[in-house]
Amino acid sequence: HAKRDGHGGFRLFEPAMHADVLARLELRTDLQRAIDEGELELHYQPVVRLVDRTTTGFEALMRWRHPERGLVSPADFIPIAEETGLIIPMGRWALHEATTHLRALGSLYRMNVNLSAKQLQDPGLVHDVREAIVGIDPGRLTLELTESIVMEDTDHAVAQLTALKALGVRLALDDFGTGYSSLGYLSRLPVDVLKLDRTFLACDEPNLIAAVISLGQALALDVVAEGIEEEAQWRTLRDLGCHYGQGFLFSKPLTAEDSLAAIA
Ligand code: C2E
Ligand code: MG
Ligand code: MG
Ligand code: MG
């Protein structure tokens, strides 16, 4: 079939496009089942202190163990979860699951949980977090947010973040450097941690990396580098005074069981 493309011309619908729409619809139905049937899992990537490479905590990363598709990565289902609002129950589950695992890891470790913008709009979020951290030092939980979170509804978002901070949990700005209003937002947001996106490492420009680490230090933030894959990157970051890091050099995300074995 041919369709107007909005520029006065015509373009052909490719069969692949149709298949994609069907796949998304199927995914949406599947995702509800995934929640109901317990097909979601959290994997845990170690966060290490760069001076000595000891594990200080973990980042919880969602996976979907699909009966036919196998292990599905978040890039393939988080966007649909956000569109459909299913991210709210999924995020609530993740908070509960990750903090339960944090109790099993013991009081020496921290846990990071990713939040989506949709969750920050949820009036029940603060209540959910308060419930999740019962019996845990709240400072051991860090909630990771991206800049896009605050671009949508800044006042409400900042109010929610302030309420979360009042619980004593820490906040991290994730994927720092991929957005475009970084510096302005940084001063407005009550964040404790700056997570440098791995594209910083890939850019291979030590002066730029040094400047961003200094920025974090000047604002008294913990700085975490994402996506460290090579020994040389580790040494550079360590020498520049970057506090923490994550990456395949140290460890891939681990199953809950393997994360317990890794610290045993
Ligand atoms: P993120 O929070 O920035 O997580 C870091 C991503 O980088 C993870 O991908 C991790 O597996 C990957 N990674 C870690 N070390 C390396 C490395 O050395 N090299 C490379 N190339 N990649 C590395 P993952 O698990 O596929 O997650 C992708 C994104 O999905 C996350 O990015 C986060 O934005 C989102 N996500 C994951 N779990 C959740 C969740 O529970 N809730 C929400 N809202 N979002 C989540
Ligand atoms: Mg993250
Ligand atoms: Mg990140
Ligand atoms: Mg990232």
From TrEMBL:
The segment(s) forming the EAL domain are: 24-264
Could you tell me the keywords of this UniProt record?
Answer: Membrane, Transmembrane, Transmembrane helix
**Would I find Cytoplasm among this entry's keywords?**
no
Its protein name is: EAL domain-containing protein
What organism, scientifically named, is this protein from?
Solirubrobacter phytolaccae
